[in-house]
Design brief:
- The chain is mainly α.
- The protein has one domain (4-169).
- The protein is built from eight helices and two strands.
- The protein has helices at 4-24, 28-32, 36-49, 58-83, 108-121, 123-134, 139-146, 150-169, and strands spanning 93-95, 105-107.
- It has a two-stranded antiparallel sheet.
- Helix 1 packs across helix 3 (36-49) and helix 5 packs antiparallel against helix 6 (123-134).
Length: 170
């Protein structure tokens, strides 16, 4: 018989796996040389080390997981860049709808830096981007996680994408 704690941990791990699969999507392994299981494992270790594997509710866990996915991917890219001879930066990109660009790719490190700047302007908008982009959450899931209305999420998501487009274009 599986204990309630084991069931809960299995559910948390499955959620991490789903988030990782959504974030990496088609071609993600090729770009990052990591598959969803490896990403989920790294996120699990990061959350476990920080003591974040016992959230009271799913809505509390999803923001932690999205932030951990962002952190793990950025750390992975930075680690690879530090190993490159001559300090050259490797261009590692994410395909997605960030900044309103359907097929264009966004450099992960530039996105991370832009999100840090967006946090100074609007922490809520930065959290929304983190949840939607790195966590793969829907508007409704994001609204629940942040305790705001879906309409507010939708409006802030549009504003954040516009802000990021301007920041990333330069």
């Amino acid at each position: 018989m599986v204990s309630p704690v084991d069931e809960r941990l299995q559910t948390i791990y499955q959620t991490l796996r789903e988030i990782a699969a959504r974030r990496l999507g088609a071609g993600g392994k090729r770009k990052f040389q990591v598959d969803p299981t490896e990403l989920a494992n790294e996120v699990w270790v990061k959350l476990s080390a920080a003591g974040h594997l016992e959230p009271a509710q799913r809505a509390e866990f999803l923001p932690l997981a999205a932030r951990a996915v962002r952190s793990v991917l950025v750390d992975l890219v930075r680690s690879r860049n530090s190993l490159k001879r001559g300090g050259d930066r490797e261009r590692v990109t994410l395909s997605g709808q960030i900044a309103g660009q359907q097929r264009d790719e966004v450099e992960l490190l530039a996105l991370d830096e832009a999100l840090v700047e967006l946090e100074k302007v609007s922490e809520r908008q930065a959290r929304i981007v983190e949840l939607r982009y790195f966590g793969g959450l829907t508007v409704d899931e994001t609204a629940i996680a942040l305790g705001i209305s879906p309409r507010t999420v939708d409006g802030d998501w549009k504003m954040a994408r516009l802000w990021l487009r301007r920041a990333l274009e330069g």
